[in-house]
Amino acid sequence: MLAVVVHAPGDLRVDEVPDPVAAPDEVLMRMAYGGICGSDIAYWRSGISGTAVLKDPLVLGHEVSGTVEAIGEQAAAEVDAAGLGVGSRVTVHPATLVGEHAVPADTAERTNLWPEVRYFGSAAFDPHEQGGFSTLRAVRPDQLRAVPEGVGLDQAALAEPFGVALHAVSRAGDITGRTVLVNGAGPIGALAVAAARRAGAGRIIAADLSPAALEIARAMGADETVDVGAGQALPADVDVAIEASGAPRALGGVVAAVRRGGALVQVGNLPAGEVQASLGGIVTREIDYRGSYRFVDEISDALEAMAHGFDVSPLITHTVSLDRAVEGFEIAADRSTGSSKVLIDLR
Questions:
Q1: Which long-range contacts (CB under 8 A, 24 or more apart) does 96-101 make?
Q2: Interval 45-89: pLDDT, tens
Q3: What percent of the chain has pLDDT over 70?
Q4: Core-most of 86, 111, 248, 343, by most CB within 10 Å?
Q5: Closest by alpha carbon to 254, among 224, 287, 284?
Q6: Strand (E) positions, the chain?
Q7: What pTM does this model have?
Q8: What is the CATH class of 162-291?
Q9: Distance of CA 85 to the CA centre of its chain
């Protein structure tokens, strides 16, 4: 089969690799679409994503959809209980919790904070956890999530990042009727706009350097936009800010935009190591600064939202065939192309 494999920084290829053999307790998926994420681009460009360092060739991709191709004998009962079978349209929860750990009771159900988590297309462990940008992939049955009727497999590939955005908005608490600033209108920021709308925000403002990104944010539900690149100023006294750019230089302005006693959720990945940022307002304005990491099972909430009319298709700006995957990465990494979410058609 074909797979998108990063071999080293700057060395991304579409390789012929052996077909996976599903274990008796696994399900074989035929992949349909994969969404290129910032972490995929980071592995391609630098060989590093966060604290994970590429050591061996890695099949990328954790935002994926497809259909059930075959079911292992020991997996059959679990698959059947989930209402799935051969041919069912599915997406995947990419996480696998590993190791035995004693965790505080108040975080026991926050599985995204488990000390050791293998994730599709991640070099955090050795051997690496291979991803889903391939023709076929073997998965555990508990990782499967059924794609609702009326939701395309292309949109279903966005359930994972939509889950990230839903989790980030939930970290802000009850935002019903509140004014929310989303700073950074890339894919996660645009999905955070949709998540804030779903959570009942009263007024949503999206800020970015790119007019194209702001247009997508409006399509995803933003009431207002701020073109930072054109010199427009961030609003003042918002109740909640979702920082989705991951740019340390943006933090000071976002902190200043939050009202006294408000909340700031950091979902954009900040660079590894030390960063320089103006954060004094967190103290003087008594702002709650909260991190947001991946999700628990909000991928299921994302699929439910899509089934009830939340249209994520404005986010999909480009789709490339599997043999053009490297070109897709180049498009996704270059904001001048007007790209937001770039999909790879894996069929």
A1: 96/129, 96/140, 96/143, 98/125
A2: 999 998 899 999 999 999 999 999 999 999 999 999 999 999 999
A3: 100
A4: 343
A5: 287
A6: 2-8, 11-16, 27-35, 48-49, 52-53, 58-59, 63-71, 89-92, 95-97, 117-119, 136-139, 144-146, 179-183, 203-208, 224-227, 238-243, 258-266, 288-291, 316-321, 341-345
A7: 0.96
A8: alpha beta
A9: 27
Domain map (residue ranges) of the chain: 2-158+312-345, 162-291
The predicted-structure confidence for 254-278, as pLDDT tens digits, reads as follows 999 999 999 999 999 888 778 888 8
Which residues, including other chains, have CB under 8 Å from residue 76's CB and lie 6 or more apart?
none
Cα(64)–Cα(150) distance, rounded to whole angstroms?
17
CATH superfamily entry for domain 2-158+312-345? Medium-chain alcohol dehydrogenases, catalytic domain (3.90.180.10)
Quick one: which H or E segment has residue 248?
helix 248-257
- Cα separation of 249 and 271, whole Å? 11
